[in-house]
Amino acid sequence: MAVALKPDRVAQRAGAISLRAVRKVYDPGRLDVVAVDGWTLDVASGEFLAVVGPSGCGKTTLLNGIAGFDPITGGEILLDGETIASPGGSARPSADRVVVFQNGALFPWKTVVENVAYGPIVQRRLSRPLALDEARSLLQRVGLGEVADAYPSRLSSGVQRRVEMVRALINDPKVLLLDEPFRALDAIAKSVMHEELLKLYDATKKTIFFITHDLDEAILLADRVVVSTTRPARVKHILAIDLPRPRSYRMMASAAFLDLKRSVADAVHEEAEKAFRRGERELA
Amino acid sequence: MVDATLRRARGRIAWSQLVLGAAGFAAFVAAWWLLVHFAVWRFSKLPDPFSVLREWTSRKPEYGISLFAPTYYQDIWASTVRVTIAFLLATALGVPLGILLGWNRIAREFLFPLIELIRPIPPLAWVPLAILMLSGQQEAMIFLTWIAAFFATVLNTMLGVTSIDESYLRAAYCLGSRRWDVLWNVVVPGSLPFIFTGLQIGMGVAWFSLVAGEMIAGEAGLGYLILNSYMELQTTTIVIGMVTLGLVGFLSSALVRWTGRRLMTWQSH
């Protein structure tokens, strides 16, 4: 999946995220559910960062804070030095940080090419015919030309997720926010999607903030893996992944991969058990 | 492609379905005939199915109403015009209002309690006020027909808007939409399935209220025909009127369904 974006845009190195003591409390003053507590972390421009933690631990809350879907209640989030979220400030989603959702959010009433062209059209960046042309040629370049005129419900979940990533990338965002995008896929489709995502990442070098509960997936894909505690989400452990790129699924059987996995497996397991005992396993 | 074949198979009406459907009709007609023929209870007062059919297809109907009688079509036309006007008004006013209620919290909190209080009032209870408020009988009957369809449309549209998956709204916003873009590209198409459910229900209750209205205040129309035939004890004509209502009601609902399917091709795949 080779993505050719406009060279002048690729040249700008942007997309550094700074999390400064980010905190999110639901229903403050009454129930006081602390979902995220004191996240401080810098994600470099072009870095692939994976956050691993049990389901319901607060990872998605953090991602929603970065995306601007939900206001945060403490700390600050910066993108390239500019505050994009803070307690008083209004959270606002923007096309410079596009989210790919857990259950997929392609518009079922639009064809694949209309979905992909959606961003440039609503941003008034391109006229409708030009946006559709660009979407079609981008789809062709990534090998999805054949499904351009299909409705999403006709496609497999794997292809839907690929289309959704193209829909995000056509906007040339600074950051891609991926919220367990492969959760609903079976192991085989997942493995293919990993290869696709790795190729996309190598071609675009976008900053990626990737959330998952799958440690193998995190190690295979990311430059750094952050192990999150279960609710409230705190940074428990940070692991640098020094596996060379381009990466491939074959590395998952390598000694280096297994060493990395061993070094954080206990930390991940400990949090999973805590979450399990709290009966929060099914809360997403 | 495989799924093209599958889709064809789904679109085709199976033989067993046709046979069973026809058998259901036959059983109904047979039961009707037997009940009348053997004069079970007071069924002797009703016409049997074959005399209804004879009268309906007669060139010289005993009571003046048959497929060959121009007045028959005048009644159908009078009712259809009223339902069409009322239904179009209900759609034109109900869909935008439903979208507004689903989309805007202030509008919802302002209007929803009021709507919930007015909605349960049966259309027939509106008859006196409708006659007093509106100048003509035609207007009064259209109002009665409209009011039932209107509430069904408003409520279903609102439900459609509020049941749109949050992810679609979020996806639209993070792709750079303004509120207006989201309304046109997500809210309206996303609630179309519910809107069309509402329109189908609306079409049903429109006929329902129209016939009741025509029985009370009408001078023409299928409801009037039925009531008038009752006064004159022309029972075959009553049944002809009822069967005709069934047919036009079915056709109008089918038309709404068909339009819905045309607008939502994305669903049938």
In short:
Chain A has 284 residues and is α/β, with parallel strands linked by helices. In chain A, 35% of the residues lie in helices and 22% in strands.
Describe the structure.
- The complex is a heterodimer of chains A (284) and B (269).
- With 284 residues, chain A is an alpha/beta fold.
- Chain A has helices spanning 7-11, 59-67, 112-122, 128-141, 157-169, 187-204, 215-221, 255-277; strands at residues 17-26, 33-43, 48-52, 74-79, 82-85, 97-100, 175-179, 207-212, 224-228, 235-240.
- In chain A, the strands form 2 sheets. Chain A has a 6-stranded mixed beta sheet, sandwiched between helices. A 4-stranded antiparallel beta sheet of chain A has the order 2-1-4-5, with helices on one face.
- Chain B is mainly α and 269 residues long.
- In chain B, 78% of the residues lie in helices and 0% in strands.
- In chain B, helix 4 crosses helix 5 and helix 9 (179-217) runs parallel beside helix 10 (222-231).
- The relative contact order of chain B is 0.12.
- The A-B interface holds A 67-69, 93-95, 97-99, 101, 103-105, 107-111, 118-119, 122-123, 150-151, 153-154, 167-168, 171 and B 3, 165, 167-168, 170-178, 181, 185-186, 189-190, 192, 264-267, 269.
